[in-house]
């Protein structure tokens, strides 16, 4: 029987100073006059609240467990704008006590004073898009910050009293050696974050790098050596891998992302935001997304015209969507969670489960969906078994 899962809120802030050549997120360079101050902060917060009001009937009575400001570069928005949104949102939604509230930030765009302001507004977790501590690598990635900027930003956040910090690092970068990848991890560890995301550079469609691949990208074997050796270094420093690209100290896993991976619900507001909700009356699982371009979103937020689309997931689609998330977790999930979050019986996935176990990709446990070490190496192949 399907049961209503925990609920999160995702808020998309779509602007950035410069779009990176590898980025396929819904991010837009701001080209207005006057720099940072010319961004339409007030108008966009108004649009977010109108968007939230439009979607509220879908989540009446439910509690928000986590909130994530993603982008784009959310730290382009000053603390006052974040505070205003949180105050208006909390007047409409019930937030859990000590709800995790994360703000993504780019070391090249923050002014190192506002962290105390973000903390006062209610932000209690920061995610720094550092990507590398090698200035040459950063330049090749099109980043606008230096390694020194990143170090100063992280320390400024800690000085402001925010100790729940994530550092994003990429590996298999153009011109990067194994030794350089390890130095990046060591540099991040020296800043004592609570969480690290460590993921391979990929050439995503519709990006500059896909159209014009940079020279010097390590081959598959080189990338695997980087992942393996960096993972060992992280483990030795007390960071346990709990998801394909996520590592955390004990008790510091990202609660917001865990809700995604456990097929929880999330309300998505903002330009291009996606949401996944279990509908109260019918208990159907619905995905909803908003129009991507900021100007169109600003003009239509709070109306049907802002919705890019709705999709009800039927019984043939639900197993794949569930596994796409759950099998990214090292520990997996109980099989009972599949039944509770999809409303389907375990017999609906018995055939692909048998194939996955026969291939040595899933542990032979009748009550748990847990990838083996081999299965974690072939995550996409495992998940593909559940695609009808």
From TrEMBL:
The keyword Translocase does not apply. SUPFAM superfamilies: Radical SAM enzymes. It is found in: Cytoplasm. The keyword Iron applies. Transmembrane segments: none annotated. Residues 1-240 form the Radical SAM core domain. Its main location: cytoplasm. It holds the Pfam family HemN_C. Belongs to the anaerobic coproporphyrinogen-III oxidase family. HemW subfamily. Probably acts as a heme chaperone, transferring heme to an unknown acceptor. Binds one molecule of heme per monomer, possibly covalently. Binds 1 [4Fe-4S] cluster. The cluster is coordinated with 3 cysteines and an exchangeable S-adenosyl-L-methionine. PANTHER family: COPROPORPHYRINIGEN III OXIDASE, RADICAL S-ADENOSYL METHIONINE DOMAIN-CONTAINING PROTEIN 1, MITOCHONDRIAL. This is Heme chaperone HemW. It comes from Thermomonas carbonis.
């Amino acid at each position: 029987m399907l049961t209503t899962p925990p609920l999160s809120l995702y808020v998309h802030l779509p602007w950035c100073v410069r779009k990176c050549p590898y980025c396929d997120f819904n991010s837009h360079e701001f080209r207005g006059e006057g720099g940072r101050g010319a961004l339409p902060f007030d108008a966009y917060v108004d649009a977010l609240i109108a968007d939230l009001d439009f979607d509220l009937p879908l989540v009446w009575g439910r509690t928000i467990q986590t909130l994530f400001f993603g982008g784009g570069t959310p730290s382009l928005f000053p603390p006052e704008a974040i505070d205003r949104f949180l105050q208006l949102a909390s007047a409409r939604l019930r937030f859990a006590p000590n709800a995790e509230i994360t703000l993504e930030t780019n070391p090249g765009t923050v002014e190192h004073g506002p962290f105390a302001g973000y903390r006062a507004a209610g932000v209690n977790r920061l995610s720094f898009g550092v990507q590398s501590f090698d200035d040459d690598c950063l330049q090749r990635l099109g980043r606008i910050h230096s390694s020194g900027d990143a170090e100063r930003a992280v320390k400024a956040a800690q000085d402001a009293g925010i100790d729940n910090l994530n550092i994003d690092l990429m590996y298999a970068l153009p011109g990067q050696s194994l030794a350089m990848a390890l130095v990046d991890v060591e540099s991040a560890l020296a800043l004592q974050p609570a969480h690290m995301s460590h993921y391979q550079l990929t050439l995503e469609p519709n990006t500059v790098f896909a159209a014009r691949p940079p020279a010097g990208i390590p081959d598959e074997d080189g990338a695997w050596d980087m992942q393996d050796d960096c993972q060992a270094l992280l483990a030795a420093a007390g960071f346990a891998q709990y998801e394909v690209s996520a590592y955390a100290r004990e008790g510091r896993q990202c609660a917001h992302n865990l809700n995604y991976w456990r097929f929880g619900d999330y309300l998505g507001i903002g330009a291009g935001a996606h949401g996944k909700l279990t509908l109260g009356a019918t208990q159907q699982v619905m995905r909803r997304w908003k129009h991507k371009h900021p100007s169109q979103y600003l003009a239509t937020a709070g109306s049907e015209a802002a919705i890019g689309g709705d999709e009800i997931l039927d019984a043939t689609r639900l197993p794949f969507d569930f596994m796409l998330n759950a099998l990214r977790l090292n520990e997996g999930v109980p099989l009972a969670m599949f039944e509770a979050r999809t409303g389907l019986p375990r017999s609906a996935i018995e055939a692909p489960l048998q194939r996955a176990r026969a291939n040595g990709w899933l542990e032979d446990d009748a009550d748990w969906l847990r990838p083996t070490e081999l299965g974690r190496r072939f995550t996409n192949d495992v998940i593909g078994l559940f695609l009808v």
